[in-house]
Amino acid sequence: MCRLMAYIGPTVTVADVVVRPSRSIIKQSYDARERRNDSSLPFHLGYGNLNGDGFGLGWFPNLSNDNTPCVFTSITPAWNNENLNRLATKLESGVIFAHVRAAYPGMPVSEQNCHPFQWGRYLFMHNGVVAGFMQIRRRLLAELSDAVYNAVQSFHSDSAVSFAVFLNHLPDLHTQHPPDVLLQATQKTIATIRRIQTEAGVPPSDVSLLNYVVSDGRSLIATRYVSISEEAPASLYYAEGSAYERESAGEVSRKYSAAAKALHGEESMEGVAGARSRPVTEESDYHLLYSDKGSRVCMIASEPVTSAANDWVEVPANTAVVVCREKGGILNILLAPLSGTDARQEEVVRCLESVSHAAGFDGHGGGGGGGPHNCMHHSHSMPAMHRQDSQLTGMDGPADSMDSGAAHAPGGITSSPFRAESGAARLAAMLGRSGGAVSVGEDDMLTGHSSSVMSMACANGLLFSGGTDACIKVWSLAASKCIATLEGHRGPIRKLEIVGGRLFSAGAKFVRVWALTEGFPCLAALQVADLRGSVKALAATGDMLFVGGQSCHVMAYKLSPPHVAHDGANGGTNGGTWSPVANGAGAGGSALVTPTVPPSPPDDLNAAAAAARDCSGPTGLELLASGIVGGANGCGGPSSETIRAMVGSAQPPCAASDPQHSHCGSITALAVCGPYVFSASTDSTVRVWTADGLRFVKVLRGHRGSVLALYGGPGIVLSGGRDHLIRVWDVETLVCRRTLAGHTDDILSLSGISVPISPPDLAALVSPGSPRSPTAAVIAGISPIGAPLAPSGEAAAAALGAPGSPRTGLERALLFVSAAADGTVRLWSAKCYSCLRVFCSRATGPQPPVMSCALTDSVTVGGMPDGIIRLWRTDDVFASAFSALLGLGDCEGSQHGGSAVHAALAAAGATDAASPNGPAAKRVRLELPSGVATAAAAAAAGAAGLPRRPSLVMASGAGTGAVPALSASRLERELERALKAFIRIKTVSADPAMHEECFRGAKFLLRLLESIGCEAKLVQPVEEKNPVVLGRLVTDPSKPTVCFYGHYDVQPAMEDSWKYDPFELHSEDGWLYGRGTTDNKGPVLAFIYAMRELLEDCKAGGTCLPTNIVFLIEGEEENGSTGFREAVQQNLRWFEGTRLVVISNTLWVGERLPCITYGMRGMISLSIEVRGPLRDLHSGNEGGVFTEPLADLSKVLASLVDSHNNILVPGFYANVRANMLQAALARLEGSHEFSLDGYKQQLGVQELTSGRSEQDLLNARWCQPSLSVVDVRVGTTEEQSNPSHYRFGPTRFSVIPKAAVGKVSIRFVPDQDAAQLVELLKSHVQHEFAKLRSPNTCSLQVHSIGDWWEARPDSPFMCMAERALQKEWGVQPLLVREGGTMPVASSLQKMLGAPALLLPMGQASDCPHLANERIRRLNLLRGKNVVKNLLVEVGAAAAAVAQQQPAVPMQQ
């Protein structure tokens, strides 16, 4: 019995397929493990493992003008042929055949009989035997035409004659045929052999084994046939994936070492796959990757050639594997029966014709060029608008009662223009076809997956994502943070679905069920696939689980009541068994499949390794499920019995689809809608089955090429695939209602939201005098996931169903989203099937494909091949779409914003193709059914770092809550767009070259303030310095005025360690990166937009602002604040009535809890200069002959502090007040927001000189003075302002400077006097310098002084700030001090006669002034809300005081 293998896919080196794999066909030539035993043959043939009677290699060369394959054969054993090794390492091809021969008795051993055989464009090889060949040979040859007869390579070989019979059944020997023609020729070949055997009287008990493999370089057909159904056929497997690659040496070593340790208790390599000496140079393990929704590699083999058992699928008996090419290098693998009804074979041919049509074959006998290089990558030219089927012409063959109408895209098969475009041209082309507003660039990115994100699901403010890295990540959408990683699957996560409070996940051979409760425990693991292939799709209802995959069958499993035991320590089930337990363990909604699954190989490598150590029963084989343990002889790979044990046995389903009507290709998607289960497949069809027994209903045709995605909505099912089209199927009539065009490449994923609408809300909406806005009325009555809400009144029901009402039949509404390989995500409305919005990640360059998508009430989500998840905020589209569904607006999407603000942003380049008009969006909840996921939602908030507050947990029935996704309102989106434009303006005040940019930044703020109604102006008291922006909004002179201070200038961003362009806003994992995001552009805009929201709230409620507002925003804060004091003093009338100054330019002490700053240190900046000779001198000529200035300076600087950073200046610690830390410690000690170890790690130091405890350290940082030497430069103070002074470059080592300057930063604390400290320091420096007795001169110069600032923690305004923070964050804020200095706080407090309040928005890790400066989006938006709360508090306090004592002002 021979062994064979074939490869089709991207070009590879022949050695990587034939020679180097650990279970290569070279290994199989002397160590075959699955040869069929045959007692009728001599023992060495019937029971042996040798295939040494010759070998052959065939390949298609990568030549554009030659489509004929090459063949190399020899009668020597493959394991001992050096020429094979030499050739294999040099040859490259995309289609490779390899065969090792074990000749049957009577078959000559000669090169003419060595496979593969070649004629014209065809390669052919055979494993098996034609029963009674010598008896029927003459009859077979008589069937041949003259041309084919002359092509017979050997009349002694049943294989060579079989090849001739195949050629004889081809319509034309010289034309490249579509795969259905090759399949029919193969089927006729087998039928001819069987017919002639019958005619010749060959005994029926003689077994024919006809495993044929044939290819024309473009398609490949492989058969597994046995003439007697009761007999076992010769083994045959196939494997498919997106790529085929070699494992690294380290990966292989670790894998084998772990396997050996599991088997033997030590890292011995005995008995482990690949442990023996390797006879082939560079032998290694190979594996398939699964990073795409389609396959680009397919391998056919008598035995698996890689050690990963899950890669391989056993070909069913009497079945042909048909491998054909789709566009873009994608392979389509279909299974066709070699026996059975004619109707079934006709169905396969019909599917193949549809796939071939999409791939570029116009018809039979047509087609051009051959060879693997000629993939004919074509696609339909899509129209720009959606179309109804009635408007189209053309049908997919004759229509019958089982088919719906099929639509052809006009224009036929043409090269897609989208593929030829790039950059701006491509984006412009997409804009032209979009049919919806285009949003370029995501609003946020989530990072964590290491490879492609293949599936996603959303509920309760949580996003679940599964990738090819075999893990599921749980994200809090509110915090844009990963809060859990669920592990257990061994293969790619193909599908995630949430039903009834449970998460179902499909990966490799298993479906796992996870509880949506705290910790997300795994309730059970069910093996639903075996050697018939992996699971690729699942769908679930309340009591049924449906799965499908490579087996081409839909299978159903019954879910029992919610009582499932789970292994909390392992995150999985006990041995993979789903078993009921008493008292209902696994609360929160769980699942059980009945009947109970018998113990099976655990879906977990660690569990398998532990089982292997027990050495009982088959557990040693369970480790093989990971694909890393070899057979007992240590040669690597599976034996004839172990591969089945490696994969394990699937749990029998309670129902399965009828094989006569099942798909011909892998099932790619499932959807349950109404009474039906819909299944999509690579065979280009969607099939419909009854949900209660999987009885066949209908075939839905129309797609060309693989159907890759399904989504079931209310009354409709959507399908999308490689023809770039979305087809809308009516569930009731099972016909295609619409065909939606727009995407320009494969549609890879579909998702959506079904929304029941409450009739009472509709009645309230249409009732006279209703105060509710249309959008609010709609959204108040929807629940995007769950049962429809029941009517509560006859009037409402009557109004809803009134004839002619635009609301008739809109009880259930739908939005859906599609993701495609063209790099776009499209958001659609089901009311008029229009595209509302198009999202893409880049403005230029190629767009990466979007592998998966999901939709919530606030965001559209796309999963990318690089593991990144991109989010686009779409709650505005959500709200406007539902208004349109009720006939309250046009069926189109728009972004909303005030026209004045929109104009201001447009002037600064902040708008992204957005319309300024439209209603305000409201927050909508996305919830699971009653009683589910409350604990998970609360746990999500805690894990994401969100304080648990009542306002976060929104009521939903009795005792039910859900943490909603952070709904980005219209103004919040506008805030982020404004910040994006603001960051883009390079307002670096320290760089004179950026002076114009700074002026642009000032004008940006001026227009923004004017857009909200402020009286605004620019003030520039000092020429060549950046202006101060003043804005004033006075609505009631009797109300208090609050002054907000901020600055729009930023530090330079010259560090190389920036992750992104520092002057382009980037969002990642909820963080907004860019220079100025936290210091101070983000807080400035947060305050402005807080005012804008207050203005809109007041307008809607008919009230006035609680306070008057003054904006004071300077542009020189990072450069000494030159001119700032003068600007304030010249415009004091603008600040009349100011009661409070609010500053947001500090940080939290940690990452989780909000803070209020109640004290800051002051700062003295000075320099100490030592001067010596008149010029710089050469160290070689003059070194050692005079007192050098730099040496003197070093000694003086060393005298300022000791080794523990204690200041050595006498009297420096005088007037330091005690107990300044008490207010902070009262709340900090139990908060866990600060630790010594965390602080050291943050600084990157091993030891600290101050503080043995957190209290000592904070006291040293906040409440004690410090002195730091921050810079030492050579040359005089005047020379250091000239950068060209450092002109010596590498020769600096030979120059003794004539002068040296040391810069010193002093921080002093409340009650200390800056002038006194300067005098103390001068005296100390003079004293220490005098001790040196140096002829040089020493001087001290003060450059700037910033005073300390302090507020009473119990002052009224501090209490108001506490209440404002607690209302928004749900926790009591911390009281903190800061070691830094903000001179403006004390200066404004003195100039305006009003207390200052420091209200930080950013976290401790925000990196102001450093690379990768950032602010968390959540902090920015909640900081805006805190400002609103504070202004309301101040206004309410002022009103209360005015009522009690009108003449008495509020006190600090």
TrEMBL record:
Source species, domain of life: Eukaryota
Chain residue ranges for the region called Disordered: 362-415
Per-repeat ranges for WD: 446-485, 700-739
UniProt-listed SMART domains: WD40
InterPro entries xrefs: Cyt/Met_Dipeptidase (IPR051458), GATase_2_dom (IPR017932), Ntn_hydrolases_N (IPR029055), Peptidase_M20 (IPR002933), Peptidase_M20_dimer (IPR011650), WD40/YVTN_repeat-like_dom_sf (IPR015943), WD40_PAC1 (IPR020472), WD40_repeat_CS (IPR019775)
Comp. bias intervals (Gly residues): 362-372
UniProt xrefs under CDD domains: YafJ
Domain Glutamine amidotransferase type-2: 2-294
Pfam (any one): M20_dimer
Keywords assigned by UniProt, alphabetized: Hydrolase, Metal-binding, Protease, Repeat, WD repeat
Matches recorded under SUPFAM superfamilies: N-terminal nucleophile aminohydrolases (Ntn hydrolases), WD40 repeat-like, Zn-dependent exopeptidases
A GO biological-process term: glutathione catabolic process
GO molecular function, one term: metal ion binding
Name of the protein described by the UniProt record: Zn-dependent exopeptidase
